[in-house]
Fold:
Amino acid sequence: MKFFIPYHGLDVSWLSLLMFLPFLSLSQAINPYAKNYTVSDGLPSMECYRVIQDHSGYIWIATDRGVARFDGYGFANFTTGDGLTDNVIIHLFCDYKNRVWMAGLNGTVCYAENGKILPYQFNRALKRIFPEGGLTTGFFCDEDDNLVFGISRMGILVIDANGNTSIKSDPLADYRSFLQTKSNIVFGYNYNSVTKGIKGTVNGKEIVIPYPDSRKKQNSYRGAVLPSGSIVMPSSAELLFIDFTHLPPARFPCSDPPIFIYPESDSSVLISQFTTGGISRLNWNRTKNTVSQTLQYFTDVTVSSICTDSAGGFWFTTLNNGLYYTPSFSTQLLSRSNALLSSKNITGMAQQENGVPLFSTEKEIFVYRNDSVFLAPGQFQFKSEKPILNILISGNLLYVIRSRENSLLDLKKGYLPNKIDYHMNDFITDTSGIFITASACFQFNNSMQAIDNKKILPQRCDAILKSADGKIWIGSVDGLVFLDKNLSPHFIDDSLLKGTRIKEIIELPNGNFIIAGFGKGMLFWDRKNAATLLDDPLNAELPLINTIAVDASGIIWAGTNKGLYRISKNETGKYEAAKIGSSDGIPLSDVRKICVYDGKVFLLCHEGVLIYDPRKDKSGSKPIAVYFESIKSGNEIFSSAGILNIPYDKRSLSIQYKGIDYSQFGKINYRYRFTGSDTSWKYTTNTQIDFPKLLSGGYTLQVAAKNSAGLWSNPSEFSFEIIPPFYARWWFIVLCALAIVSITSWLIMRRNKLYLKKTQQQFIAQQRMNEMENQAKQAMMNPHFVFNALNSIQQYINTNDRISANKYLTKFSRLIRLNLDLVNKNLITLEEEFEKLKLYLEIEQLRFGEKLKYEFVISTELETDIIFIPSMILQPFVENAIWHGIMLTGKAGMIIVKAEMIDNDNLLRLEVIDNGIGINQSRKLSAGKKRKSLGIQLTIDRLRLYAQSSGREIKFETTDLGENDPMESGTVVTIELPVSFGKEKKF
Structure:
């Protein structure tokens, strides 16, 4: 595609000359793009009478079935069941308190305030004056709460804030209506037969707008007040534009009385009419005092009222088509709804070298000029039953794509009967022939009678361009190609361009290329350096780019399957992208083709052809106000006024809010945060935030909305406090603190008592231990053992066995000496314990000879010289094993003493094993005897005291070997006790 800067001079081409001749074809004005709201969208009725916007931004619509309020998301409808005094509402007015007043057909009035609809308190006064109801031609409420009515055929009725009524009328004037200016000028008017003119009151003074005496009596209808205070006043034959600084007024012929007059500015008004339908714009030249009509829109609907919202959007109520809204008149829509197009789809769009666009439907071709569309002359209409699918143009050649029957037209020579069987994507003309891009790139010769083709590039090609230096460039599915002098193709070796499907190529005046890379986005190439991608976050949305165009100011327009994008340079020279969407009057559609002409951007998309004038676009200039609608906890609703105190059991909140921006059609982006603790914004498109189980404390919620231009509003704030539960309040905390102090004091006292008691117990235990030790020391040497030992020595002496007597006496004295050495020690080493036990066993072995054997099995890991245990804990059990176990068997006995560490927890296991008669049999034999082993009992008590003193458990266990195996006999005594390492310790 070649880049052209449009110009407005005289075009010498035959087609352009024909286009500017009015007799060639009929024209059709193009409507602005508008959204039509109907009952299927929630509107209560298709018959609507008035539309206004209140100070909060809500749109109110009066219908024959009640009143609707619109917030951009949905309609809230109100009827007599909600407080209306009549379901047929014919007038609306928003006063200085943001109360929306509603006048019904039955002559009664009500108003909406703070979410409720209330009846006017002086409706009875209205009923007294008009028992059958009067047709209110208009009304307003001033800042003194006076309600002023215009009453058909009566005059002006004023009811003050106290209910006092007054009527201003003139018997010579048939008042039909009244007007209100910003300074509360009241103007009632109609033709006066005496003064031969239209009589009214301005600032309390009567004026007469004269008519020539030859004129007949006129009927006047609703008028309008311009911002300057001038008045537009209709009659049955004309419109009067009255500037009170000079008379007579400017007159505009108007045989069809307007239904509604809306002032756009001091020099422009919009009027709607019954007969012709739609909306017309009238421009008032105050210098010349003349009025002219420019455009006419929506000719197929009857518009009953018009208003603009705070963002500049236009709203139209109709008597049979519901409600219309357009964000801006800067966008027009040429679609099958236009009468001239006869319900045919727009199938293609092309642009001549002078920039003038052409449109095709399935049967015809149209030309655009001065905001109107003209049917092209008959020479442009191809006589074929095959529908037109698209049109392409290059130089003087117009190519029409049909289903299996394509056609070519020379704009200078006329229709050519030749047909080309290729579904062409693009083409150019050159001195070497005609080049088309389709399933491949083909070359044709310049003979129009017989066109032979030659394949230049075999792969599919979408775009072709002849640059200013004469080179031919082709956009293929594999990258960018140029043809040399011999028309041989060469691919551009560039990492971005190579392998990219190129949908369109544009050459800028400086020779650089802008390339639409399908799948990559927007690319820039200066033909000397490497290609670069558009460095902008929005480039991520541009990969499925279909078409691009550049206007005279250098702005790049890109069409994708998601809509239109504008790419322009900022003050630093960097390209930046912006999305042009529904808020600009551009629906989010698949843009297939873009043309730029006369400052306007033409977009071929699914809806038809959208004509966008960026010079008139004022969208996104104002931030969006956010309103908090309700705060709910379950089914309970809290007020959003002031600071709320919310009970702790209702701390799960749902907060609803809305920002009003009708241009975004309910797709507003929001962000919110709590001030103080969390400064990060959270983003959403929902109009409700749920906060489950908030903690107690004060909160301030901030919510901001983003307008269509990407501007965030100043956040709206809502403060509330979650009341803490009773257990988190100060008095409860104080009570708990006192209770904790009391309990803590009691626990400390109890602990001290327990500590003292434990200390006393330990002292008593220590005393008992000392007593037991003394008893144990007295019982260490069993008198029976001593007596037997002395008898044995005596026997050896009497038998003159001096050697045995000396040996026996030596060991006995050694054992006595060792006992005396250890008598003052609470803990002895394991080595000393074993030494004493061995001496004892040696002495007993001297007595019994071969009848007694013993063995010590000590683990090699034990360091017996540093392990401390209570003294004399094994000897009583060994002695018991000899006398009550082995000696009763009548055969040789065996004593085994084992020692080992267990559990790696400083626990020592000691075992005394014998092969005597067993503990069970021994107990049976000694059942009738009173004598018990005092040494064993003393040892067990000492072990218990040792456990109590050390704070750890001691295991003591006696096992009869015959219980598990009848073939075995004997007893095992097991002791597990904690030990100390190092030096001697007390217990």
Notes: The mean pLDDT is 80. The radius of gyration is 55 Å. The first helix runs from residue 14 to 19. The first strand starts at residue 27 and ends at 29.
